Amino acid sequence: MSANTLPNLAKVIQENAAQLEEYFHTDEQPMPSFEPPYPPELPLSPELHTLNGTSLQLVYNYDVATKVPLHGDISFASLAKACDLEEADVRRMLRFAMIHHRVF
After folding, report:
1. Whole-Å CA distances, 57 to 19, 67, 74, 94
2. Lesser CB count within 10 Å: N end or C end of the chain?
3. Residues 54-81 pLDDT 10s
4. What's the pTM?
């Protein structure tokens, strides 16, 4: 009998869920939920709080929003070239804005 049967996989999932639940209770962390607000608002360190506003300011200063097509896709590399920025910086800036401001 294969170890990848549905009942065996269900058992593994159940065991892992129990471990996660124990972790959340032991460390007094909020239980994950699909209820709003999702993801939960996390307190930001002073450094991240500064970056928080900076990411939107950079999106505005480099006119990023107008360079992202309404329909279709654009790569980070193409967007970086259009904004005359380094690709790594565009990735970092947009990922932060997507997570913390739910934009793009």
Report:
1. 41, 15, 21, 11
2. N
3. 778 888 888 998 999 988 899 999 999 9
4. 0.49
- Tell me how far apart the terminal alpha carbons of the chain are, to the nearest angstrom: 47
Give me the sign of the Cα torsion angle 72, 92, 81, 101: positive
Pair of tokens at residue 5: 């049967």
Is residue 56 within 8 Å of residue 96, measured between CB atoms?
no
- Strands (E) across 16-95 are located at none
Residues, the chain, total? Answer: 104
Contacts 24+ apart (CB under 8 A), 61-70: 64/90, 64/93, 64/94, 65/104, 68/104
Distances (CA, A) of 5 to 11, 14, 16, 19: 10, 14, 17, 21
- Please name which of 60, 69, 70, 71 lies closest in space to residue 94, comparing C-alpha atoms: 60
